[in-house]
């Protein structure tokens, strides 16, 4: 169901077409996150107009509210959201662990993002989730109700939600989990991978296995090798991606060659990553798809993407619209952008809406950031086809060679 | 600049065309409120798609933030908001009084809406506004900074904002102001009306005079007669509209015949009113335009308009989307509606978004309610032209004859 259409000669970057019952996805692709069956501040029509080709919804959130049975009765996620293109769902594992432990919703996947160390069962934090050999038990962050997720239950929920591509149930270890714990968790995750495959009922849903192993080379290699040996339709790289972006790149450099030996022709997803530089670095290392809340979340906080030369690695390719220097700025957010927001509104107007906390700001800002990332991925795909990927990367990330 | 195109034979209802530098407005018309230069949760493009022909922005809010000088430098409200159709601004008087006294933003115009009596300088409430013979001094609800509004200042602010139709500066008395106070305030308001006219500088801006006088017949008649004698381009009925909707109807029955004697051919706006039944009752009594935040505000609180027979006077023509009975309801909000929300989404999905407090809910709900009211006004205009206004009113408000 996945066809590679072009391989970059100088890197592991590649273009492909992933076929699903709701249409084809051109890869590499950025997948906007529709956590609760809506991309925050946008509706399905907006996403169509932005040219999004696929969304990812969250099993954990939808299981809690409105519940997968309701979604199923409404025609699955496609009918419920009125979105007729492909949908991914995650397994619920990540949220079960992060929310179950009462941590921030915006838990990062790289340890350096955390100013305060945390780990499973850390002192002073009420432990809301318990990992057993069967799965994870946790309390709903909405109602306090006890919830159990196991590979079988996760598969059942994802079957009811009806996504085109679903993920195996895994344990997402913390960036600060030690080797011993990560190794132990990996054994469980591998057993759960097989249980997830065994619990699959709907052959139309493609099931991706998840590679774990934290930041430990032998565990990542072992996991890639094991997961690639199972009859998954694709793979996802999940869990802790180390203490820096360099660690994340190393992890991909351990994992992808293993997949290339075993299963070149299956798609590879990177869970929860989506910075501008990440897209280049990880596509170069063989990633086909990304999902990430960041472009939408930073938009809501005033950070709006701009192209180089205004956008640089140093400013993370964003301007902060709250800055007083934009007070009377008649220019669009980004002079190279053709999104609905940039076509109609000035920085001054958006700054006013942001400061006044107007609801319209959140949509206009999200439209811009998602348009920006979706167009960037389109450019990346074209550059791979035209053998100009390295050059494109250089024009964006001049201080990374 | 206002041409009456049809007079209803059985009532004071009429259709007309109000010409402005930014295009013509067909009346009777409903004017969505863009308080801070945005209709909450929508952008200008949304309003264009809904077929809104005119907006009303708030002088008080825009004076405080971002300031009229900034708006002027951005090409006035039209340039700032990227809205090329007509715009009204109010005079700032209403907000100065209501917010100045630290009252709720959603202060009503009819006393029965207030469970707790309040009046100017009521005990226990910190008095933030002081009325002088020159104008009103109050503290910004944002910064605490002292602000002064006078007829001259209001005209200057409205000139800088650049609306097509501006309003005279008036004192908006409370629904609970007594006769003596209302009479005294009216003398001031009438002097301010003349001062507003004298302070007008831009002949392209049409200036409407405001008729006050609370719920007192002699004061309303006197005010209508006085304001109609001045060279205003149109009139607005403002201030306290009594203790019930019947009082409001009576006030219009006192005021409009006076205007009809003096100035049939000038448009008449009713400030801050816009319930479904109000549109019928007030059009019937000779009102040409309405502005009201209610359709958008009630949408944000889950109340969504439905046509008769589901919509009735008793349920105020709304369903509350939070109701459990809509949990798995595949129908659109209103089966007679062709708005973007009803064309794509079910009640079940909207209920989910509402309960999950998703940002997308607020826009989808606002789109529906404004579409509903704008289409209703379109129907009302057509019914006046076809001499079927009374019949149309009856199909909507069967228990009011």
Number of domains of chain A: 2
Backbone CA Rg of chain A: 20 Å
Oligomer: homodimer
Report helical residue fraction of chain A. Answer: 40-55%
Measured by residues with Cβ under 8 Å of the partner chain's Cβ, the largest interface is: A-B, 37 and 37 residues
Number of helices of chain A: 15
Question: What fold name goes in the CATH topology slot of the largest domain in chain A?
Answer: TIM Barrel
Unreliable stretches of chain A (pLDDT < 50, length at least 5) are 102-107, 113-125
CATH class placement of the largest domain in chain A? Alpha Beta
| Euclidean distance between termini CA atoms of chain A | 34 Å
Structure characterization notes:
The structure is a homodimer of 401-residue chains. The longest helix of chain A is centred in the C-terminal third of the chain and has 27 residues, at 359-385. The model of chain A is unreliable at 102-107 and 113-125 (pLDDT under 50). In chain A, helix 10 (276-284) links the parallel strand 13 (268-270) and strand 14 (289-291). The two termini of chain A are 34 Å apart. Helices cover 40% and strands 16% of the residues of chain A. The radius of gyration of chain A is 20 Å and the shape is globular. With 401 residues, chain A is α/β, with parallel strands linked by helices. In chain A, the strands form four sheets. Chain A has an eight-stranded parallel beta sheet with strand order 4-14-13-12-11-10-6-5. In chain A, helix 6 (151-161) packs across helix 7 (179-199), helix 7 (179-199) runs parallel beside helix 8 (217-228) and helix 11 (294-300) runs antiparallel to helix 14. Chain A has helices at 44-50, 59-64, 68-73, 76-81, 93-100, 151-161, 179-199, 217-228, 245-263, 276-284, 294-300, 340-344, 347-355, 359-385, 389-396; strands at 2-7, 14-20, 23-27, 29-31, 55-57, 87-89, 129-131, 136-139, 146-149, 165-167, 206-211, 234-237, 268-270, 289-291, 303-305, 318-320. The first copy, chain A, is built from 15 helices and 16 strands. Chain A folds into two domains: 2-292, Queuine tRNA-ribosyltransferase-like (TIM Barrel, Alpha-Beta Barrel); 303-396, no CATH class.
């Amino acid at each position: 169901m996945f066809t590679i259409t072009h391989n970059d000669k100088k890197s592991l970057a590649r273009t492909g077409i992933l076929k699903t019952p709701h249409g084809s996805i051109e890869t590499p692709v950025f997948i906007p996150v529709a956590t609760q069956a809506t991309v925050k501040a946008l509706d399905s029509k907006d996403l169509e107009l932005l040219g999004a080709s696929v969304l990812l919804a969250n099993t954990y959130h939808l299981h809690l509210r409105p519940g997968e049975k309701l979604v199923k009765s409404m025609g699955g996620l496609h009918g419920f959201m009125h979105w007729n293109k492909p949908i991914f769902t995650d397994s619920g594992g990540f949220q079960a662990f992060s929310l179950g432990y009462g941590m921030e919703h915006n838990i990062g996947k790289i340890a350096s993002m955390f100013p305060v160390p945390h780990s499973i069962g850390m002192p002073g934090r009420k432990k809301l989730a318990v990992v057993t050999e069967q799965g994870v038990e946790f309390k709903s962050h909405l109602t306090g109700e006890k919830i159990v997720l196991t590979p079988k239950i996760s598969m059942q929920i994802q079957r009811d939600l009806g996504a085109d591509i679903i993920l195996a149930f895994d344990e997402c270890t913390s960036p600060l989990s030690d080797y011993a714990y990560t190794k132990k968790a990996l054994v469980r995750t591998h057993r759960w991978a097989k249980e997830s495959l065994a619990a699959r009922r709907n052959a139309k849903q493609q099931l991706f296995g998840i590679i774990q192993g934290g930041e430990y080379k032998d565990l990542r290699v072992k996991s890639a090798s094991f997961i690639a040996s199972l009859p998954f339709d694709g793979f996802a790289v999940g869990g802790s991606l180390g203490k820096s972006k360099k660690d994340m790149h190393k992890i991909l450099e351990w994992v992808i060659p293993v997949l290339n030996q075993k299963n070149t022709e299956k798609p590879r997803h990177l869970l929860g990553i989506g910075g501008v530089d990440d897209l280049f670095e990880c596509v170069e290392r063989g990633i086909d798809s990304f999902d990430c809340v960041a472009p939408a979340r930073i938009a809501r906080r005033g950070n709006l993407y701009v192209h180089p030369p205004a956008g640089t690695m140093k400013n993370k390719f964003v301007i902060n619209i709250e800055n007083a220097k934009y007070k009377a700025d008649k220019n669009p957010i980004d002079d190279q952008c053709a999104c609905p927001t940039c076509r109609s509104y000035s920085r001054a107007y958006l700054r006013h809406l942001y400061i006044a906390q107007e609801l319209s700001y959140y949509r206009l800002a999200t439209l811009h950031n998602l348009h920006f990332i979706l167009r960037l991925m389109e450019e990346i795909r074209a550059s791979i086809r035209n053998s100009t990927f390295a050059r494109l990367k250089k024009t964006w990330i001049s201080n990374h060679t």
